[in-house]
Design a protein that fits this description.
Blueprint (H helix, E strand, L loop, with lengths): L1 H8 L8 E4 L2 E4 L3 H12 L4 E5 L32 H12 L5 H13 L4 E5 L2 E7 L6 E8 L4 E6 L2 E4 L5 H5 L4 E3 L8 H6 E12 L21 H13 L3 E10 L6 H14 L10 E8 L7 E3 L7 H6 L6 E5 L3 E4 L7 E4 L5 E4 L11 E3 L8 H6 L3 H20 L4 H4 L5 H10 L20 E4 L13 E3 L3 E10 L3 E11 L3 E10 L7 E12 L3 E12 L4 E18 L7 E5 L14 E3 L10 E2 L1 E4 L24 E2 L9 E12 L2 E6 L23 E10 L4 E7 L6 E5 L4 E12 L6 E8 L1
Parallel strand pairs: 1-7, 2-3, 2-8, 3-4, 8-18
Antiparallel strand pairs: 5-6, 6-7, 9-13, 10-11, 10-12, 14-17, 15-16, 19-32, 20-26, 21-26, 21-27, 22-25, 22-26, 22-30, 23-24, 23-26, 26-29, 27-28, 31-38, 32-37, 33-36, 33-38, 34-35, 34-37
Length: about 750
């Protein structure tokens, strides 16, 4: 590769190595590397974070400008991570008010700079990796900053490769393979066909911008494949200004220079295409070369994660991360294009995929983990990279503190302890709820100031939803029968509507499953009105249920803003601008980039459902599952605090209290940096107090937290013997009620 040739030329400089040392060396300053550094440093390890770029962010930084997330590529409407990735997004939203990639990189550096155990070394390339005489450990690596003429010989106990293509692992001769086509019969065609792409940013000026193609551009855009040419034109038809992908896909061709590819396409658009008039004021603002993926390295670990594992939702005893990214496949018609396909559920990633089978102190977080090509293509998803980074960063730190190799920690009987620690740090390790056997809260009697009820829906601010001929109204059912459901709707025409009551799918409760009952309603008046559907049906399984409403004419759901968790409205996917195809559900929640709860129908059920009782706080859920799984108070202006109280029948010793607040699990991160006025989720608790009551009946204030910005807070106590704990909610970041998912107490 060109990069390696340039790096090898650095060796001709006679620079004296300076010594450098850390517990953990991380190569790659993207989201995965940042997350790995934070996880390891907070566990006590000294971390050196190295990246060749002058800025942090990798593909999501100034030099890459790739999306931070994909819109509605997951079949779980409560998809957001709540650990380190959520923290990263909150800091970006708080500090990047201008909404630029430059500001985003600055915010990422702010996160790293606050950690005393992290030493960032930006602008450093890795020249060489030294392997032990036994060829099973990395002893050191040589890094260089060419512009500053500084070269270090860095030693560490563990090395984590968070680069985009596994460059560090290749320098260390770690066993692995290059990305190959899954269909070997197709390999020859793939080899003969040159596929290359570049991202360009197009802007407009107030005056016409004339473009003359330079003489050194020899390639002609018309020689490109018709599919690639059509794709660029369609991208321009959708939106002229902004980011566009330009692809080159030609048999028996050499790889073009990124600039030559860009100017060849632009010459055609400006001077010879039917779009000459539309493009007369447009100009190319920026060219961003995309990394070629054909040569990407994939390591060999103790397990090879496959597409089948992800598609079937296979569970692993050593699962340490949960990925919600869509499966990415090459388009059969245009191999240069990647098609994203949503999965029916999230999938688990075992620790055995994240370390080298041969190099004992080498771990991975990125598309180069031990996996097949399909999974590798999918792992460039930033939230997934963050999950992988957290897992390997923490694993490396624990390997040092426990003097155990990652392979040993991944064994049954040992991995459970690590997973328990991860879950306590609000890092999700598996799809199923992790059972916390040390928590004392389930032994307590729980009471609350108030609890959300049906009548509180009428306190929501309403707004007419989008006009549609079909929708899906999701709501939780906790009773063993359902007599009727009513909701507000708006009709502009007299019509008949078909209504089906559906239960949640056994594989994913957020996807409709079996139909329980149907009904047809005649709408004889126009305007806003409350409709009631009678069912009189037994409910076999508590959980999310759905009303599918269809008509041959348009209607609207009257929606309530900031609805309680578990209530929402889904609309046909075909009418929404989404990133991924989805064969599992034709409905999806409307994309929202502000950190707010979903909207829902103004709904009432008979009997009334008890989904938000304080008893939910005694479960192990720290996020929505088959039911909302949290306590919600009634609407409040917090003139008086909302509170929850835990009282034990016998005194306990309390050394630690964990509280898991609601960070709004259903909003999207903007694909490009975007200045959002709201820094934190409005449901997040802002100010609160914690009281304990001794066995003598004396109440003591032990914490008064102001301006909380984290969905997970823990408080260490001096192990008092207590009878009860009370948590008072004084305010939120905007929501007019208190919401808490889980409280845990440990002795």
């Amino acid at each position: 590769m060109v990069t390696n040739l340039i790096l090898n030329n650095f060796k001709c400089f006679d620079l004296k190595n300076k010594p450098s040392r850390s517990d953990i060396f991380i190569f790659g300053g993207g989201i995965g590397g940042i997350s790995a550094a934070l996880a390891a440093a907070r566990d006590g390890a000294r971390v050196c974070l190295v990246d060749p770029s002058k800025d942090l962010g990798g593909f999501n930084g100034e030099d890459g400008q790739f999306p931070m997330d994909y819109t509605s590529s997951c079949n779980d409407p409560y998809f957001r991570e709540s650990g380190i990735f959520e923290e990263i997004i909150c800091v970006i939203r708080e500090e990047n008010k201008e909404g630029t990639f430059c500001g985003q990189s600055r915010a990422l550096y702010s996160i790293i700079s606050r950690e005393p155990n992290i030493t960032p070394m930006l602008g450093f390339n890795c020249l060489d990796v030294a392997i032990s005489p036994s060829n099973d450990r990395i002893e050191s690596c040589t890094i260089i900053n060419h512009s500053r003429s500084i070269q270090y010989l860095h030693r560490a106990q563990y090395f984590i490769d968070c680069s985009d293509t596994g460059e560090f692992s290749k320098l260390g001769n770690a066993p692995g393979e290059y990305r190959n086509p899954v269909n070997l019969e197709k390999a020859k065609t793939e080899y003969e066909c040159c596929k290359f792409s570049v991202v360009v940013e197009i802007d407009s000026s107030s005056t016409p911008s004339i473009f003359k193609c330079p003489d050194w551009v020899k390639m002609r855009w018309e020689e490109n494949s018709s599919d690639a040419r059509i794709a660029f034109v369609k991208s321009l038809e959708k939106k002229l200004c902004g980011f566009h992908l330009i692809e080159w896909d030609k048999v028996n061709s050499s790889y073009p220079n990124p600039n030559e590819l860009c100017w060849s396409a632009w010459d055609f658009i400006k001077n010879r295409s039917p779009m000459q008039e539309l493009s007369k004021n447009l100009f190319i603002k920026r060219i961003i070369p995309k990394t070629r993926t054909e040569g990407t390295f994939r390591g060999i670990g103790d397990y090879l994660l496959t597409e089948e594992d992800a598609t079937l939702g296979k569970s692993f005893y050593d699962s340490v991360a949960v990925a919600r990214c869509p499966i990415s496949k090459r388009n059969k018609q245009r191999a240069a294009e990647i098609i994203k396909l949503a999965l029916p559920q999230s999938f688990e990633i075992p620790l055995r995929c994240l370390y080298s089978k041969k190099i004992k102190n080498l771990l991975w977080a990125g598309p180069h983990i031990s996996c097949d090509e399909i999974i590798s293509l999918s792992l460039a998803h930033p939230p997934t990279l963050s999950q992988l980074g957290c897992a390997v960063g923490y694993c490396a730190s624990k390997s040092i503190s426990k003097s155990r190799q990652p392979r040993t920690l991944a064994k049954e009987g040992r991995i459970e302890e690590l997973k328990k620690d991860w879950e306590k740090k609000n890092h999700r390790t598996q799809r199923k709820t992790f059972k916390d056997e040390d928590n004392l809260i389930p032994l307590a009697k729980v009471s609350a100031s108030t609890t959300w009820q049906n009548k509180d829906f009428h306190e929501l601010v309403t707004e007419t939803g989008r006009e549609t001929d079909a929708c899906l109204v999701q709501f939780p059912i906790t009773s063993d029968s359902l007599e009727s459901v009513s909701l507000l709707m708006k009709f502009s025409e007299i019509q008949k509507i078909d209504v089906r009551l559906l239960e949640g799918s056994p594989q994913n409760p957020n996807i409709p499953g079996s139909c329980l009952q149907t009904d047809i309603l005649e709408i004889k008046e126009t305007g806003d009105q409350r409709i009631t559907i009678s069912f009189e049906t037994d409910i076999a399984t508590n959980g999310y249920h759905f009303l599918e409403i269809r008509s041959d004419k348009k209607f609207c759901i009257v929606e309530g803003k900031n609805s309680p968790v578990g209530h929402l409205v889904q609309y046909p996917r075909k009418n929404l601008p989404l990133d991924a195809e989805n064969p599992y559900s034709e409905y999806c929640v409307k994309t929202d980039y502000s950190p707010l709860p979903h909207r829902s129908a103004i709904i009432e059920t008979w009997p009334e459902q008890k989904a938000y009782n304080p008893i939910e706080l005694t479960t192990d859920n720290s996020r929505p599952g088959h039911l909302p799984g949290l306590w919600i108070s009634q609407t409040s202006k917090f003139k008086y605090p909302e509170f929850i109280e835990f009282q034990w029948p016998s005194p306990i010793t309390a050394a630690r209290i964990d509280i898991f607040f609601d960070p709004c699990f259903g909003y999207h991160t903007p694909p490009q940096p975007h200045g959002i006025a709201q820094d934190y989720a409005n449901s997040l608790v802002k100010d609160y107090k914690i009281y304990i009551t001794s066995i003598e009946g004396k109440t003591k204030l032990i914490e008064h937290i102001k301006d909380n910005s984290s969905p997970h807070r823990f408080h260490l106590l001096d192990s008092p013997i207590i009878q009860s704990i009370e948590i008072e909610i004084l305010s939120t970041h905007g929501l007019d009620r208190a919401q808490i998912f889980r409280v845990a107490v440990y002795d």
